[in-house]
Amino acid sequence: MLVIGSATDRLVPLGVVRSEYAKQQRNPHPTALVEVPHRGHSLTIDHGWPEIAQLAADYLDDHLPTPETPRP
User: Fold this and answer.
1) Strand, helix or coil at 2?
2) How would you classify the pairing of strands 2-5 and 32-35?
């Protein structure tokens, strides 16, 4: 799970994002936190959205199984 947060998000404050990340670290699957500065709640539709999309794509590239890798 990729958790993305921003210090300027007023709807879901960074403290809530970090708390959820801490909870999710207990699951057996890869979990990562990315803090993006100077962004609001609308990360995926606001200016600079390609950067957010690239973060998600990079995470998937790093964690999705390949055809050669057996799934757990």
Assistant:
1) strand
2) parallel
